[in-house]
Here is the input.
Amino acid sequence: MRIGLLTDGGYPYATGESRLWCDRLVRGLSQHEFDLFALSRSAEQEEQGWVQLPAQVSRVRTASLWTADEDILGTHASRGPLARMVTGGGGRSYRRRERRRFTAYFTALATSVCAAGATSGEDDAAGASGGGAGFGERSEDGRAGRTAVGAADAQFTDGLYGLAELAREHGGLPAALRSETAVRVLEAACRAPGTGRTVQTATVPDFLALARELDRVLRPLSLDWYDEESLGAVDLCHATSGGAAALPGLLAKRFFGVPLLVTEHGVQLRAHYLGATDTPLSAPVRALLANFHRRLATEVYRQAAIVTPGNTHTRRWQERCGAGHEKLRTVHPGMESGRFTALGESGDSGPDDTLVWVGRIEPAKDLIALLHAFAEVRKAEPGARLRIIGAPAQGPEGATYLAHCRALAAQLFPDEATDAHAVGDNPVSFEDIGGAEVPDLSEAYAAGGVVVLSSVVEGFPISLVEAMFCGRATVSTDVGAVVEVIGGTGLVVPPRNPRALADACLALLRDPERRARLGAAARARALELFTVEQNLAAFRGIYLELISHAPVRREADTVNTDGEPRPFATPPEAHVRGPWAASGPVPAGAADRTPRRAAEPRTVCAGVRGSGGGDV
Here is the structure.
C-alpha cells in the first residue's frame, strides 16, 4: 500500500524529533511505498539536509512553517536527483466574494477559540502559562457548559474546514490571515460577552500577535498538497505527531476520504502548555493559543481512525482531550538493542562504587538534585563516585546549565589530594560521549553499577530503556512514562527529593546480588516490549487493519498495462450488497477506493466506497 507519512520538524531532516523512529519504520516496512510530507521548523534544520532515504520512499514534499515569506508555501522533491520546485500562491488577495467567505469562516474559528475561555474560566490561561490546567469545563450549570463546549467545537470545525476549502480553491490564506479584517474579527470575538477576563484584556498588539501565530499554525491549510496526485493518491495518512503534522491528514480525509492514523510519543498539546512560558507572548495571546490547540487536538483525535500513543502517560492526556477509548492502541517506541547485546549478556553488574547518569544535559534533567543526593551518598560511602556522561551541551541554555552544575560539584566536593604535592581528584566527573574514556553508549552504561535518572519532566525515557538493554539496575524519579517502562525492575522515587534518591542509590550499591537480579529482569522486559521488531509488528498489523476497513479503488490497480481486467484485483466481497465498513457520509471529492495489493494470505472483508457518499 501507499503510505503518506506526515512529519513536523523531523524526518527526513537530519535533525529533529522522531527522526530515528520514522527512519526505522520506513526501512522496516519495506513492502509498502512511502510518500513523505514534511514540515520544517527552522532554517538551521533545512541547512542540515536530509538523511539517506531508502528506496521505498517514492516522493518527498516539504514546507516551511518558520519562514516569514508568505509566497514560499511548499517545495517538492522527486526521487532521483531530488530536484526542488517552489510553488506559491499564498500571498494573493481575495476578491469580494472570497473575502466574505473568509470573514464568515474565520469568525466561526475565532468565536470558538474565545468561547473556550467562557466555559472553562481562566483555566486555559493558567494551563498555557503553567503547564497542565485547562481540560475541565466549568459553568454554573454543568449541562449548559457541555452544550456550550459542543457548540464551540462545531464552530471550530466549520471554520477550520471552511478556511481549508477556501485556501484550496483560491490560492492560500496568509495574506487574509494578516489582513485588517482578521484583526477586527479577533477583536470582536475577544470583546464578545461571556469571554474570560484574561481574553478580554487583549489589546491591539495582542490581536496582531495572535493573527501572526495563527498564520503560522494554519500554514498547512495553504499548501498545494491536496490534489489527486499528492495526498489524494495515498491509501493511508500516518501523522507522526498531533498538531500541525496532523492538519494535512485531516484535510486528506475531508477531501479524499483517506483514513488517518496518528502516532504521538509526546502530546503536542502538553508540549505547547509547557513551552508557553518560554515565549514573549502576552497572557491573553497564550490563553487563546492554548484554546486553539486544545480544539485542534480534539478534532484530530475525533477524525483519526486509530491513535497510537507511545506510552500510558501520553494516552491519559489523549483521553482527557477526547480521544475515544476504542481508538487508542499503545505502541511503545522501538529501539535498537543490538549494540547493547554484549554488555547485557555478559552478566557483569558493574562497579560496586559508581553511579552513572547518561543523557542530554538540560534543566529538566535536574542534575542539581542528583548532585545533592550524591553528597548524601558520599557521607555513607566515602569511596562512591558519580559519572555524568552526556552529549555536548545544546545552545546557550544548555551550556549555562552545565557550567552551573560544574560549579556546584566543585563546591560540594572539593578536590581531594593525598598530600600537598598530589593532584586532587573530584568524585564527580563530567564526560562527553565519544571521548577517549567513553567512546560509545554501551561504554557509558558499563561505567556504573547503578544508572540514575533524576528528571522532573520526562516523556518516554530513552536512556532508561538503554540501561535496561544493558542489564543495569536503575534508580529513577516518578515522572512521565518511567513507571510504565521500569515495571518492577528498578527503584522509583519522587522527583525533587535528594534524600529519597540517595537512599535508593545506597540500597543498590550495597547489594550486588540485588543489582544483578534487577538488571537481568530489566533486560528481559526491554527485549519483550521496547525493540524495533515489536514496534514494526504493531504498525504492520495496524496498517492492514485500517486499509481493510477503508479500502481504496483506483482504475490503475484493477487493469493491466493492456487495459484488461487484472485477475483477483477486486475481492468478491465488493459485489455483496450491504455496508462492510463503518457507515457515514464520505467527504465531498472522495474518490472510489479499493486496496492496492493483497494485505494478508487470507480473505479480508472490505467494502467499496461508492460515489454516492456511502459504503456499498
